[in-house]
Design a protein that fits this description.
The chain has about 775 residues and is α/β, with parallel strands linked by helices. The chain contains 19 helices and 44 strands. The strands form 11 sheets. Strands 10-9-11-8-12-13-14-15-16-17 form a 10-stranded mixed β-sheet. The protein has a 6-stranded mixed β-sheet with strand order 18-19-23-20-21-22, with helices on both faces.
């Protein structure tokens, strides 16, 4: 009997699927697609990354070991038979399939657009999905990677019967697919561990073309074109192709293509560079038109890129870093030829290549091709081979590649010594300002180089700050931020500073701007959540006593510093017999942050007592605005969103006896303690929707007490999430997603966060 929510797969009803290797760029998107298709999905991986974990959690995939409800196990081809999860599945007699086999089974229910080829298929798939999204073509898709924009999921279930999917030939599962449309980007002999001869690989692609029912879109200059039946063949490429495209202009990160042949448009703007990306874009636009989407000139103008495919990596000032997944000589040559053109054009002084070979079998087979491609660099720094489960073999090590490169291209400087430390030492020693660094490889080179670049970037900024700050200012690396927030979760600031004066603050902002470093200003840490992996920014705190001033003016007003705690402001005002500030007593923040978000409580708002605000813009300039010159609304002052408050002039509501004011504060305190939790929290999580209260909606959905780890929806006030002591930011974020989704599903109201997610965009997590 088929259970509710289950579907027949491989001839049997299935409702719960467990994915082994779910952090992989093939498996993760498939798990997300399965969840969107209505399956209950779980997954595990020994190498889980934050980027994939965020996408999986947002899609409703449970990360953890296989549960009792599992009915089908899917694993990547990299997961060996002796893996504990596969052994456990065998012991329970559960059916197990490879990723490609399950994707092919799912694809039987759709008109499949299969994107295949030796190089560039992930980029081409991402471009095709981007063009179809821009055209409003509601197809489903399964990418073989992550978009550069974390707000775009790597997989989605569509609504028009079409499915775009990247098909991997490396493990032979290409033989399970029968597409409606096949887009073949190119063919180079690769995966010698599986295809012993090039003819074996060509037969695999030929079989796919023969099973394609509507159109096979293929590069007219590729050997694959001869294997396509004339009845289904459609060509793309340069002049003479059915769909022709050529670069006519390129600048910055964009290029413009002139289109011809059967294209319905004559030009297209593409947010990418390089001749091979021009070919990928032409192929993607051709496929979009073939399946019936209406093209526009801007279809790829907002292409977000794909992680580890020509990604621009943040680095110190004067250094440009491009990361790419290339691991075949053909891919590497295409990448480096593109980057070499930037050097010739004056965008960089030298091309430095940091390369990690991938698999010993591939290195042995293509060692001469690697040498020729890498010689396009002005100098090359090599990392130990990433074996991907293979054992080292003679003639296939990085040392062998170094020697081959030295023999074939004697003039190319090559640096290699075993070990990561020697690799990074060589990079640090050889890099110069003005260099273009290409970080190339499909192994773990990115996880080694990116943190190293991060450390260099923030050390460079710290070195630049030392001579421009006063001796009283504080600058620290990797400062823990959890103790500096009321939620008590999160990681470290890459660089942390406490200015001792306005001059220090201006110097911090100007220097950070000159080096392209983002800046975040942290008050007392209420109303914020710091991610577990910390904040890639210069975090500035106005904690120095110089920022906590309280001065009574001759006209009866009060001048207060941005770093003054609201609780202290109330106490000082009460002692002076100044009324009207009592409602601020229980708000756990400082004046600067409270002004930025127009904090309020007990029916009153901070800007009710504001006469003027003095603030610094991000360029280091100081401004003063009267209350009537500021755009103030619910939880916001528009002029202060991107500015830093220095001080404000406040006008008391009344003059009264200190005891009377203190009594009113005590009454407010008692009311607050009765209605709000005492555990660590960030305050109200969601903004109140118009005409309603977020807490009421959450409570009405029965969500009080809902818990993820040590984070819980408060039993006292449903719009608070409390930390019982050991919560992580990921627990809090998962709970926010769950609450928001439940309220949307049950009440039809989309709650928007009131708390700030430091250094990130909420759309990447919700």
């Amino acid at each position: 009997m088929t259970l509710p929510g289950s579907r027949n797969l491989f001839g049997a009803p299935v409702s719960h699927i467990h994915c082994v290797g779910v952090a992989g760029m093939g498996m993760g998107p498939l798990a997300i697609f399965l969840s969107g298709a209505g399956f209950s999905v779980s997954g595990e991986d020994d190498g889980m990354t934050d980027a994939m974990a965020s996408q999986l959690t947002r899609a409703g995939v449970r990360i953890g070991p296989m549960g009792e409800a599992c009915e089908l196990v899917v694993h990547s081809s990299a997961i060996r038979a002796g893996h504990p999860a596969r052994c456990a599945a065998s012991a329970r007699h559960l059916p197990m399939v490879r990723r490609g086999e399950l994707l092919a089974e799912l694809a039987k229910s759709y008109n499949l657009v299969a994107v295949c080829g030796s190089h560039g298929k992930t980029t081409t798939t991402a471009m095709l999905v981007t063009a179809l999204r821009a055209a409003g073509f509601p197809c489903g898709y399964v990418l073989g990677g992550l978009f550069g924009d974390a707000g775009i999921p790597p997989a989605r279930v569509g609504a028009n019967g079409w499915l775009v999917a990247e098909i991997d030939e490396s493990d032979g599962t290409i033989g399970n697919f029968a597409p409606a449309v096949t887009l073949a980007v190119n063919l180079d002999w690769d995966h010698p561990d599986f295809y012993r001869e090039q003819a074996d690989l060509e037969r695999a692609f030929g079989g796919l073309f023969a099973r394609t029912t509507q159109a096979v879109i293929v590069n007219r200059h590729c050997a694959l074109s001869a294997k396509v039946s004339p009845s289904t063949a459609v060509t793309f490429g340069g002049a003479g192709a059915d769909f022709a495209g050529e670069v006519v202009a390129a600048s910055g990160e964009n290029m413009r293509l002139r289109l011809g042949g059967r294209f319905s448009i004559t030009e297209a703007v593409v947010r990418a560079r390089g001749d091979f990306n021009a070919v990928n874009a032409t192929a993607a636009l051709a496929a979009a038109q073939v399946v019936g989407a209406k093209l526009s000139h801007e279809a790829l103008a907002n292409y977000p890129g794909v992680r580890r495919r020509q990604c621009l990596v943040p680095a110190e000032s004067g250094l440009t870093v491009i990361e790419d997944y290339a691991h075949h000589p053909g891919e590497i040559r295409a990448l480096l030829e593109s980057l070499r053109a930037r050097v010739r054009g004056g965008e960089a002084s030298r091309l430095v290549v940091a390369f990690q070979p991938h698999r010993f079998s591939r290195t042995a087979q293509f060692i001469d091709g690697f040498s020729d491609a890498l010689a396009l660099g002005d100098l090359v720094v090599l990392l130990d081979t990433y074996g991907a489960g293979e054992l080292p073999t003679a003639g296939a090590t990085t040392a062998d590649l170094r020697d081959a490169l030295a023999r074939r291209v004697p003039g190319c400087p090559v640096f290699y010594q075993p070990g990561a430390v020697a690799f990074l030492d060589a990079l640090g020693r050889e890099l110069r300002p003005g260099d273009l660094l290409a970080v190339v490889g499909a192994g773990d080179i990115d996880s080694l180089v990116k943190p190293w670049l991060t450390r260099r970037r923030w050390q460079s900024l710290a070195d630049a700050l030392t001579p421009v700050l006063s001796v009283d200012a504080i600058v620290r690396h990797e400062e823990p931020l959890a103790p500096r927030t009321t939620m008590r979760v999160g990681g470290c600031a890459r660089l942390y500073a406490e200015p001792a004066s306005e001059t220090d603050l201006s110097a911090l902002l100007r220097t950070a701007s000159a080096q392209g470093a983002p800046v975040f200003v942290l008050g007392r840490g209420s109303n914020v959540i710091v991610p577990d992996d910390g904040v890639e920014a210069l975090v500035i705190s106005l904690s120095h006593p110089a920022w906590a001033g309280f001065e009574m003016c001759a006209d009866g007003s009060v001048r207060a510093g941005a770093g003054l705690r609201l609780k202290n402001l109330c106490g000082l005002a009460a002692k002076a017999g100044l009324g009207g500030f009592e409602f601020l007593e229980g708000i756990p923040g400082c004046l600067g942050g409270a002004l930025r978000m127009n904090a309020g409580a007990m029916g009153a708002w901070l800007f009710d007592v504001v006469e003027s605000v003095r603030f610094m813009s991000r360029d280091g300039r100081i401004h003063t605005r009267r209350r009537d010159e500021l755009s103030v609304g619910y939880r916001c002052c528009r002029e202060l969103v991107d500015a830093i408050v220095l001080e404000a002039v406040l006008r008391p509501m009344a003059v009264a006896e200190a005891d009377a004011i203190q009594g009113k504060m005590e009454a407010y305190r008692a009311k607050r303690q009765a209605s709000q939790p005492r555990e660590a929290s960030a305050g109200c999580v969601f903004k109140n929707p118009e005409g309603d209260a977020a807490g009421r909606l959450i409570d009405a959905c029965g969500l009080k007490g809902l818990r993820v780890g040590d984070a819980e929806v408060s039993q006292v006030h449903a719009n608070f999430i409390v930390n019982h002591g050991a919560a992580r930011a990921s627990d809090v974020l998962a709970l926010i997603r769950e609450v928001r989704g439940r309220v949307q599903a049950e009440k039809g109201v989309t709650l928007e966060p009131e708390v700030l997610l430091v250094g990130r965009d909420w759309q990447d997590f919700l």
